Amino acid sequence: MRQLDSSIMANRCQLYGLVTLRVLIGWHFLYEGISKIINPYWSSAAYLLDSKWIFSGLAKTIVSNPNLLGISDFVNMWALTLVGASLLLGLFSRYSALVGMGFVILYFLFAPPFLGLEYSRPGEGSYIIVNKNLIEACALWVLYAFPTGHLIGLDRLLTKSESN
Q1: So where are the chain's domains?
Q2: How far from 30 is each of 23, 53, 77, 96, 156, CA to CA, in Å?
Q3: Residues 6 or more apart from 39 whose CB is under 8 A from it?
Q4: CA-CA 20 to 30 A from 118: which of 19, 25, 130, 156?
Q5: Nearest residue to 31 (alpha-carbon basis) of 95, 80, 98, 94
Q6: What tens digit of pLDDT does each residue of 70-101 get?
Q7: DSSP at 114
Q8: How many angstroms separate the CA atoms of 18 and 79, rounded?
Q9: Residues 139, 25 contacting (CB under 8 angstroms)
Q10: Number of other residues whose CB lies within 10 A of the CB of residue 101
């Protein structure tokens, strides 16, 4: 019996840890999205112009075309906001984890922390290959693999209504 109790407690601890991770990443995405929406001067242009590696040509093409830049800005602002709200609430959390993972992998690929690549904007630290975007993408992969919204989140309401 004691072994069973410790197993249940470990599973609860894992569940609460995963829910906490989901909520924290959700908050991060939501904050990043809303801060871009409410700032009338925000644009992805500076980030894109500073791009290095395989997507630098695409980044320059986006910045040189006002329509593409407008689409890029709109998608960034609203996708970050919606993914953040979804993760925070545990609503469509598996899909949001995938979309969020796609975004942070793109951010990583547009500005990878590889040796020899110099960026004009100051970094948050000294990275070689692994940075916060790669770590957050992996954390979102974990949240996709172990969805928690159906246990603690609004996905639970959808699961109940589908089973009725």
Answers
A1: 2-163
A2: 10, 28, 9, 12, 21
A3: none
A4: 25
A5: 80
A6: 999 999 999 999 999 999 999 999 999 999 99
A7: -
A8: 22
A9: yes
A10: 20
